[in-house]
Design a protein that fits this description.
It is a single chain. By secondary structure, the chain is of the alpha+beta class. The protein is about 35% helix and about 15% strand. The chain has helices at about 30-35, 40-50, 60-65, 70-80, 120-145, 165-180, and strands spanning about 1-5, 25-30, 55, 85-90, 100, 105-110, 160, 205, 230, 235-240. The longest helix has 28 residues, at about 120-145. The protein is globular, with a radius of gyration of 20 Å. The two termini are about 25 Å apart.
Length: about 240
């Protein structure tokens, strides 16, 4: 299923390349740490810092999330406690601490227990995506009413597919998708190429065990909740292992 898929456009040479950086994965397994992440503002911070790999101040992050700088500082210190963000180097006479991601990739893994707290995190991620969609639709409609935006293919893409995958294929597909996304990361997160637009992406994979269509063939094992994963725009992943 696809929604608002843009029409084919003229080929344009890629404006970005893979960021030359060593990979450092931050993996959260402590249920207390996962529960600490179940806050919309904290997930916004993780998304921003891990996706951009740039440093931000509490004031800059507060403006993005609608919080006060003091409230954002509290959340940043909480994320620092669990090793998710770290203080960044400051240049010159900077008067406010800067923060950065503690690694290049972020993963939540609680082991797939019943009522795992990462599902609360997933709910917040989905809510954040809905907010992005609504904000984009509102801005687009306002620009159209002012005559500033000509009718053109939407930049919004939504696709849904049903696949039958072995555990090995699930792992392979996940790795390939994340590897593909890395090809479009900025080489220098502090230098945004002209003509580019900030885009939020979300990719997910979850077993569909509903009804006879999902039943395994005779002599085969059913695919359980293992391998469930969801990826946010920051390259973060959450799901039972």
């Amino acid at each position: 299923m696809n929604a608002e898929t843009p029409a084919a456009e003229s080929p344009v040479p890629p404006a970005v390349g893979r960021r030359p950086r060593p990979e450092k994965k931050v993996k959260i397994t402590d249920p207390k740490a996962i529960r600490a992440l179940a806050h919309a503002a904290r997930l916004e911070v993780i998304s921003e810092l891990y996706a951009t790999q740039a440093s931000r101040t509490a004031t800059e992050l507060a403006a993005q999330t609608g919080l006060t700088p003091s409230a954002m500082s509290y959340h940043l210190r909480a994320l620092q406690k669990w090793g998710i963000v770290v203080p960044a180097a400051t240049a010159g006479d900077a008067r406010e601490r800067r923060w950065q991601a503690a690694g290049t990739d972020f993963t939540i893994n609680s082991g797939g227990g019943v009522a795992s707290p990462e599902f609360a995190v997933l709910d917040l991620e989905l809510d954040a995506y809905r907010r992005r969609v609504n904000a984009y639709a509102k801005t687009r409609d306002e620009r159209r009413r002012r005559g500033e935006l000509a009718d053109s293919p939407s930049s919004v893409v939504l696709a849904s597919n049903l696949l039958y995958l072995t555990p090995a294929q699930r792992a392979e597909l996940t790795e390939k998708l994340f590897d593909l996304l890395k090809d479009y990361e900025l080489e220098d997160p502090d230098r945004i190429p002209a003509g580019t637009q900030r885009m939020a992406t979300m990719w997910s994979m979850i077993p569909d065990d509903r009804g006879p269509a999902a039943a395994p063939a005779p002599g085969t094992a059913a695919a359980g909740p293992t391998g469930t994963a969801a990826a946010g725009p920051a390259g973060t992943a959450a799901g039972p292992a």
